[in-house]
Amino acid sequence: MIMKTVNEAEQLLSIWGASAQQVTTILSKSDALQTRINLLFSIHDCLQLLVRDEKERNGYMLKKHSGSYFDGRKPLEIIASGKLEDLQDVHMRTRNMVCI
């Protein structure tokens, strides 16, 4: 398995439209940094399967979504809380869309 770096994760978050502050909040937590990076790239992989159009795929994290979990919120806003649990939840919800 190829390990992704913090730099690659920063680039991915930037592509998703994250602000510098959001990137710092998501990645600066010392707990489970590699887990955070792996979750981000797993979300990315799921989105590649779900959304063919690159522009739409890259904008997914900035788009408000309906449903009981997102409830009009943007996935990027949720993970920008900095809580590992929020990142895990967004990952699980995105992964579940692939596995329907």
Helix/strand order? HHHHHH
Question: Distance N terminus to C terminus?
Answer: 26 Å
Question: How many DSSP E strands?
Answer: 0
Strand content: under 5%
Number of helices: 6
Choose one word for the global shape. Answer: globular
The class by helix and strand makeup works out as mainly alpha
How would you describe the overall organization of this protein?
The structure is a single chain. The mean pLDDT is 91. With 100 residues, the chain is mainly alpha-helical. The chain has helices spanning 6-15, 20-27, 33-50, 54-59, 75-79, 84-98. The termini are far apart. The protein contains 6 helices and no strands. Helix 3 packs parallel to helix 6 (84-98).
Secondary-structure blueprint:
Elements: H1 6-15, H2 20-27, H3 33-50, H4 54-59, H5 75-79, H6 84-98
Helix pairs in contact: 1-3, 3-6
Keyphrases for this structure?
100 residues, globular, mainly alpha, 6 helices, single chain, 62% helix
Give a summary of the structure in a few sentences:
The chain has 100 residues and is an all-alpha fold. The protein has helices spanning 6-15, 20-27, 33-50, 54-59, 75-79, 84-98.
